[in-house]
Amino acid sequence: MKTLKEKYGFFVATSMGVGIVIGSGVFFKADDVLIATGGRLGLTILAWLIGGAIMVVSAYTFSIAARRISKSNGLVDYIEAGYGKNAGFYTGFFQKGRRCHNYSTITVDDPCMQRGFG
Description:
The chain folds into 2 domains: 9-68, no CATH class; 73-118, no CATH class. Helix content is 71%, strand content 0%. It contains 6 helices and no strands.
């Protein structure tokens, strides 16, 4: 069995994570959060801080899983390791639907299906 070679160091992986999470969400969701809190700035900032704390804990959890499970399918492999192959399959299936946004066209010739589930 081939072992995976680490491509990214700590700094690059952290920068990618921060860029992905903060990159677009800050610009698209800021007004929604402000509206949801009734225009109260303090509550809005608190909501962003709570969301940020949840993301830090989630990222830490994924980093632990990535260290222990050195396979290339990410979330699907982590779920498979913890809950079995069926759970991994369903995770991949619903990840595919989330990314392609159309459950009615799940066929073998679907471009998203050709890329794989992960």
